Amino acid sequence: MTDVLPALTSSNPADPADVLLHIPAPGAFAVVDAVERARSAQPGWLRAGAGARSAALGAVADGVEAASDELAALAVREVGKPLSEARAEVARTVAIWRYYAQAPYEPTGAVHETAAGAGLLLTRRRPHGVAGLVTPWNFPFAIPTWKAAPALAAGNTVVLKPAPEATACARRLGEIVRRVVPEAVFTVLPGGATEGNALVSAADVVSFTGSTPVGRAVTRAATARGIPAQAEMGGLNAAIVLPDADIEQAAGHIAASIAGFAGQKCTATSRVVAVGAALDPLREALSEALRALAVGDPADRATVCGPLIHEGARDRMAEVCRGLATLAGGTPLDRPGWYAAPTLVEKVPPGHRLLREEVFGPVAALLPADDVAQAVRITNSVPYGLVTSVHTADLNTALHSLDLLDTGMIRINAPSTGVDFHLPFGGTKASSHGPREQGRAGLEFYTSGRTYTLAPAGPAA
After folding, report:
1. Is residue 105 within 8 Å of residue 179, measured between CB atoms?
2. Comparing C-alpha atoms, which of 124, 129, 152, 145 is closest to residue 50?
3. In the beta sheet, which residues pair with residue 132?
4. First to last CA, the chain
5. Which among 78, 232, 346, 358 is annotated as catalytic?
6. Catalytic: 232?
7. Cα–Cα distance for residue pair 293/291, rounded to 1 Å
8. What 8-state DSSP symbol labels residue 293?
9. What pLDDT, on the 0 to 100 scale, is given for residue 4?
10. Does the domain spanning 7-233+431-452 belong to CATH 3.40.605.10?
11. Distance CA 163, CA 387 (A)
12. Domain coordinates of the chain in residue numbers?
């Protein structure tokens, strides 16, 4: 008698009756088998050389670009990403593959003089082996790419376990990659917690993006095995607005960061800290900006805020906001799908869930601060430290804030959302664990340093 494996279902959050796929989960044994096949393929992938790896990653970029319209439409349908954002994500995905296609030609070490005598000392970075990647649903192409591309460029093979809600997107990306890399170099294994745990237990290096509780479990398991791990987890990001800021511009940036893709980004703004005289004009401008955002069908080019990913996410946001003083939004939308209006609340009691937990929905709290020092204390008071935006015309204040804010990324006069894929990405405290992602930091994470001593076999002739 065999066990019946649970099924994986992916549905359109804008139309829950539209089911993209319903398949059995592969189970833990399938994951272990995929890792072993990837481990067998890894030496050959490394020996293929920089030219072959560079050409393969470049070909993946070409394949993604050729399928841009199809992939954007798939992201709209499977995860409810607004069409404009889906297209931007696919374009970024192409750019990331092309960026890392040059990485195999980069130096992997250095030559050093010996302390005494003849010989050479060399340092060199080498791949770990099999990279196990556990990725979320909210960036179904970009996040798997910015993990897989540097891993592959460095000579690792990859087993990707996407979130169940983004299974169709991951499988389609896998089809494109597998057309240009050898067998078992890149494998997509859909699944849930069972498959994710199996991958963490079998891979040689692990990268995770998702919730804080799961990320902590992943890093504990990887640490117990003695393998490298990185985890990008939650955010509870603040936007600080000073009285000298361009209030209309700041309100536009912040509204987009609150409600873009229904707030389902780890870099979304969930706290707005208005300093001194900025409070009243910002309250009015931000409330109006949120009310003006287009909410609706993510396939509509004008839509900014589409549905939340599932019914539980919508209900959780409603529960968190219940009883709070509402400036914008706060009412359910009477339409099919898991929609919530972009919401701004104020007078939130200290210790409220909205000020301690990541809601992952289009909602933010407006908080007053007497001065910049208090604004910084409010910003730093939460368990997370991913990104902060600061809106001011005073360069001196902006520069001082860089040293005081306890977040991994600080954006001056810019939205909290947005990623420069060629720079390190990550936060402090409960937001991140381990080395940074993206840019050269990503390449370093997927390799380990070796030191070689080359001494002469005998005296000089």
Report:
1. no
2. 152
3. 159, 206
4. 74
5. 232
6. yes
7. 6
8. S
9. 55
10. yes
11. 24
12. 7-233+431-452, 237-412
Contacts of 199 (CB under 8 A, 6+ apart): 31, 35, 132, 134, 159, 161, 189, 206
Helix 49-66 × helix 83-101 angle, to 10°: 160
Q: What is the pLDDT of residue 50?
A: 98
pLDDT tens-digit readout, 108-137: 999 999 998 899 999 999 999 999 999 999
Q: Please tell me whether residue 267 adopts helix, strand or coil conformation.
A: coil
* Dist CA 133 CA 130 (whole Å): 10
Exposure string over 411-424, b if 16+ CB within 10 A, otherwise e = beeebbbbbebeeb
Residue 291 CB burial class (10 angstroms; 0-12, 13-18, ≥19): middle
Distance CA 430, CA 374 (A): 22
Residues of the chain short of pLDDT 70, as ranges, are: 1-5
- How long, in residues, is the chain? 461
Let me know if 321 is a catalytic residue. no
According to DSSP, the residues that pair with 269 across neighbouring strands are 237
Residue type at 341 in one-letter notation: A
Cα dihedral 226, 104, 75, 27 in deg (nearest 10) = -40
CA distance 335 to 457: 79
Strand ranges (E), 95-250: 109-112, 120-127, 130-135, 157-162, 186-188, 205-209, 229-232, 237-241
- Catalytic residue selected from 169, 266, 305, 321: 266
The pLDDT of residue 400 is: 82
Of 65, 72, 61, nearest in space to 96 by CA: 61
| DSSP 8-state symbol, 277 | G
Give the angle 451-452-457 at the CA atoms, nearest 5°. 160
User: 175: number of CA atoms within 13 Å, CB side?
Assistant: 7
Q: What's the whole-model pTM score?
A: 0.95
| Torsion region of 445: left, alpha or beta (phi above 0 gives left; psi -120 to 50 gives alpha) | alpha
Provide the residue type at 308 as one letter: L
Sheet holding 237-241, edge to edge: 325-328, 343-346, 363-369, 269-275, 237-241, 387-391, 409-412
pLDDT, tens digit, for every residue of 212-243? 999 999 999 999 999 999 999 999 999 999 99
Q: Are 56 and 152 in contact (CB under 8 A)?
A: yes
- CATH topology for 237-412 is Aldehyde Dehydrogenase; Chain A, domain 2 (3.40.309)
What tens digit of pLDDT does each residue of 124-173 get? Answer: 999 999 999 999 999 999 999 999 999 999 999 999 999 999 999 999 99
- At 2 the pLDDT is 44
- pLDDT for res 5: 63
